[in-house]
Amino acid sequence: MATPSHSGNAPSPKPRVRFAPSPTGYLHVGGARTALFNWLFSRHQGGTFLLRVEDTDVDRNRPELVEGILDGLRWLGLDWDEGPYFQSARLPVYRAAAEKLVASGAAYYCYCPPEKYGGDDPAEEAEPEEEGKEPKEAREKKGPAPRRVIRCNCRDGQPASSEQAPAIRFRVPLGARTEFEDVVFGARQVDNDEIEDFVLLRSPKGPDGLALPTYQLGAVVDDIEMRITHVIRGADHLSNTPKQVLLYRALGAPPPVFAHVPLILGPDRTRLSKRHGATSVGSYAEEGFLPEAFRNFSALLGWSPGDDTEFMRTDELVRRFTLAGVSRTNAIFDRAKLEWFNTQYLQRLPVDELLPYVEAELKRSRLWHTEWANTQRDWFRQTVDLLRPRTRLLRDFSNWARAFFSEEFAYDPQARAKFWKDERLPALLAKLADGLEALPEWSHDACERVLRALAEAEGVKAGLLINAARVAIVGQAVAPPLFDTMVVLGKDSVVRRLRRALPALRSP
RNA sequence: GGCGCCAUGGUGCAACGGUUAGCACGGCAGUCUUUCAAGCUGCAAAUCCGGGUUCGAUUCCCGGUGGCGCUACCA
Fold this sequence. Notes:
By secondary structure, this protein is an alpha/beta fold. 41% of the residues lie in helices and 10% in strands. Helix 7 (241-250) links the parallel strand 9 and strand 10 (257-261).
């Protein structure tokens, strides 16, 4: 018999990772980026990506938000292989685990009222000497009052005032250290004495006496049961990881690989929140960002492929993503760069990939005509292709480019002010309309010949006519080249629009 | 307050003991032009501070400072 091979030789199983949001808000960009990393990792490794809804906080939980979070993930194209599992449906599992830990001595019942645990800090008790000595802001930044005691008497089997429903706390093994390896942050170790006896199971509330697990218990029990191999999550959980490692041990399960990813901050370097404006991925979808552009952009927040490549379509992201490329530094969310990515995708994507998004945008703004999807598909493609070099967001197709999809549009006041100044214009544009109407064939060059001939005959610069005509035809100063625009709009529409503009042209 | 993490232009990332410290966004200027973008060219802009280690530190160590995180019967 050969000696057992070293475990290093064993083929590593396909990784299983998860994204575990709480339905206490929308899917924000930080959560989305965490989900993206999990997804990229699982796809790169050919593993499994599962979803778990951590909805154990009955007070903050809002079930109606779950669908919005899932929508956000779908919009981003982050498809999951299992779930979503709901922790609220698994409450007995956590209670059983907690009681098992009590039975084994790894946990104990705690009868302390929640607010008393930890005790008060005498230093903080005293009123601040000299009002205003310390700037208010500095005071607020200190956060919650410091805790002095991290052990209570219940730990040693203090007589239970048994009328009170107890919580279950973890009995942190004193006098030892807990170590673990984080793929991103390296080897970590902490003195157990610094870890409080954290709550596993909250004391039952209400007549039904439901005992809810805390995050620590729920996450660990589920990660064990769901055979999670890699926990990829925000670095805000780094400090809590030792507790979970302790839990894994007590539960007799090997800890997974941990990979904590840096946080995403707002422009003011504080954690992203509502204050920073748009922070939900849904708001970016509504604003007209392309999911793939958003994906590309957020993948680069706290990760890099190791070289200077930035524009990476999803397949390339999947191919190049490794945890080794994850950085340890918090990143600031830079909207300007996100917009740049969006313009890149708007311009570089094969047109046909873009059409469904433009269609959705036009439907949203009620400008869509179904013929464009079938009999006039070529026209639609050509128009989108003409427009897209000047678009930054999908919204642009129904905003400034509205006149390409509707006869109802307004003349932009600034465009009028800039290009309709010359008082010869009404007469000139009337002649232009006549000339164009007389054209036997409608083409870019034919239109251009008519306009330039007219300009020469009238002794004006072609630019005068071009710019004025553009405003008359599409209502905007910013638009694609005029003769391409004319071709796409068609002769009837162009002539009609030129003539329709004449009254407005005469009045100031 | 305690414990911890992090630190390259304004922003996102490269350089993982030896480079004129690189790329991109943003900014500025020029160019192109039919408006506006895009594109192209160029410019300004960074190794937080102080000590070590080393022939040599952006890089390794220590201290400081700053930012962030955790310190809940939230997740």
